[in-house]
Write a structure and sequence with these properties.
Helix content of chain A: 55-70%
Number of strands of chain A: 0
Largest sheet of chain A: none
Number of helices of chain B: 8
CATH architecture of the largest domain in chain B: 2-Layer Sandwich
Largest sheet of chain B: 5 strands, mixed
Radius of gyration of chain B: 17 Å
Distance between the termini of chain B: 41 Å
Number of domains of chain B: 2
Strand content of chain A: under 5%
Largest interface: A-B, 18 and 21 residues
Oligomer: heterodimer
Number of helices of chain A: 2
């Protein structure tokens, strides 16, 4: 049987690195970029029927 | 968003309101690293000649007449943006409206509550949706702790905040 070495340490390091990158990226976002992401969340809620309020018209 | 700020500034020019400051999740979005979802824009207004009873009718009539706005529950929809006009009723809101930060949104200047006052207001109201917001903000540690404690102390909210923090700490221990 072929043994698969999954390299747990490197996987954890990669995960931690991407988490740190994600946190850094979040900090770099401008107000306008955050607004756009928020509108995406509104679009999702509206599409799912969670709210009747239409998403803000920000593209 | 830019259009809304323009309309609000026009309302000042037309003497419908004296001033406005943005609050709620829209203002919070400016300061916090996390993205908090909201469906409306909270607009705190100041009106010089405020009687005992103030109604929003003149504001709504102005918006309906000039911008084809439509009422929807507690909101008034202007250019597809749900707006909620609010008057600072208590001492904390009244103080917050004087402690603003001027920012530029899509090229338009506007005032928003300072970060510490936004946090103090969430602690004061402590709606269920504010719980997670406060937790994330505490974790983010991007606010001025001294300034926040000073506001909370003056408005007898420091004990409430410490209890909230203790609760979060207990939960963190349980989950770790």
């Amino acid at each position: 049987m072929k043994r698969i070495y999954c390299g747990v340490d490197s996987l954890i390091n990669r995960m931690l690195k991407s988490k740190a990158d994600y946190e850094n990226d979040k900090k770099k976002l401008s107000f306008e970029e955050k607004l756009k992401i928020m509108v995406k969340l509104q679009e999702k809620s509206y599409a799912m029927g969670a709210t009747k309020i239409k998403p803000w018209p920000i593209k | 968003m830019k259009e809304i700020i323009k309309i609000l500034n026009k309302m000042i020019k037309d003497k419908i309101i004296d001033d406005f400051v943005l609050g709620g999740a829209t203002a919070l979005l400016y300061y916090a690293d996390n993205i908090f979802q909201t469906e409306d824009i909270d607009i705190f207004i100041s009106v010089k000649h405020l009687g005992l009873i103030f109604n929003l009718e003149p504001i709504y009539t102005y918006l309906k007449y000039n911008y084809d706005a439509k009422e929807y529950g507690e909101y008034i929809i202007v250019k597809d943006f749900p707006l909620q006009f609010l008057l600072p009723g208590d001492s904390l809101h009244k103080e917050a409206i004087k402690n603003f930060k001027t920012i530029t949104i899509q090229g338009e200047k506007c005032k928003i509550f300072s970060f510490e006052y936004l946090i103090a207001l969430m602690i004061f109201l402590f709606k269920p949706k504010y719980r997670e917001r406060i937790r994330l903000i505490i974790e983010g540690k991007t606010y001025d702790e001294k300034k926040l404690n000073d506001i909370l102390k003056r408005h007898s909210l420091l004990d409430k905040f410490n209890k909230i923090k203790d609760k979060f700490n207990e939960e963190n221990i349980l989950w770790s």
